[in-house]
Design brief:
Blueprint lengths: L3 H11 L15 H7 L4 H12 L1 E2 L4 E2 L7 H7 L2 E5 L3 E5 L3 H13 L3 E3 L8 E3 L3
Antiparallel strand pairs: 1-2, 2-6, 3-4, 5-6
Helix pairs in contact: 3-5
Length: about 130
């Protein structure tokens, strides 16, 4: 059996992520952070999700790892605590996801390169 660090590397290779980059951390240029200010919490969360699946050689998010709206919805899900221990998960709607992606494009942080069905984005400024 593989040690935990190598096991996660094996899983990453299996789903198509390349090896040379350290996926435990990524760098965000200061200029990108300036563009993110005021974008809204959903747009910021989506930007970091896209950064986590970006191929470092081509700066494309969604070319090697398939991105779906459902994946974005699940990865940006947040819990809302109500009362004593009562909680529910909040997932963004398709309209909210579309507006957040348009906001990132308007701020020139991403550029859509895929078709209407396939979500592929070029990460600008990384």
């Amino acid at each position: 059996m593989l040690p935990p660090k190598n096991r996660s590397l094996a899983v990453r290779k299996k789903i198509g992520m390349s090896d040379p980059c350290n996926y435990d951390a990524f760098r965000v240029p200061y200029a990108s952070l300036e563009f993110l200010i005021g974008a809204g919490p959903l747009a910021i969360a989506i930007y970091f999700v896209l950064l986590s699946v970006t191929d470092p050689k081509t700066s494309l998010a969604g070319a090697r790892t398939i991105i779906s709206r459902q994946m974005l919805r699940e990865w940006t899900e947040r819990e809302i605590r109500r009362g004593r221990g009562l909680q529910r998960a909040y997932q963004a709607t398709d309209n909210e996801l579309r507006r957040a992606l348009e906001e990132l494009e308007r701020r020139q942080l991403i550029e859509r390169t895929g078709s209407a069905e396939r979500l592929v984005f070029r990460m600008l400024g990384i």
